[in-house]
Amino acid sequence: MRRYGQSLYQPRSPVARCVNFLCAVLLTLILVAGVILFVLWLSLRPHRPKFYLADFSIPNANRQSAGLANLPVHFTVDEHNPNQKIGMFYDEILASVFYGDQLIATGAVMNPFYQQPKGDTPVQGTLLARGPVPTDPSWGRFAGEMSAGSVEMRLVLTSKLQFQVKVWDTKHHHMKVECDFTMQGDGTLRPQDKNSQCTLYF
To answer: What whole-number distance in Å separates Cα of residue 98 and Cα of residue 125?
Structure first.
């Protein structure tokens, strides 16, 4: 029987104190490791590249009553790598130009290359137009828009992209870049669309 006034507190054994101490140290180490990994993830997380339509033209587009077939299609898209410590490997870049759903021109425009961190590379291409021509169903609408000086068009770039993070590389990502713009009646890029940002799809 317990005597009145006797303390209920029982001192913990050295083993229990040691276990509690080790558990506290382990939890602290896990917390610190988690914070370090989170900071590393933030610093090494790849950011997607950015693309801007710098220029586009189809010389003499407004002087061809037979359509655009065999006319050169020139364009420049500026690529920017926003990562400070991550490089990018690009496969061959293919370009296609569309008027609505009609393919105007297509072809390879750039060989594989490496983009250094915070670097910029102009993607320049010259394609050969295959239309529209007067026999195409879209010719009437196209000719009318050319006369009005405003033709809605789209430039599409496709490639595969791989991020280089320190000493290891990520998997290949299929990349698609879409640049919507308006071509003027003389075949040049509308000034408002110059250096407009394109949409990137992964």
So the answer is: 15
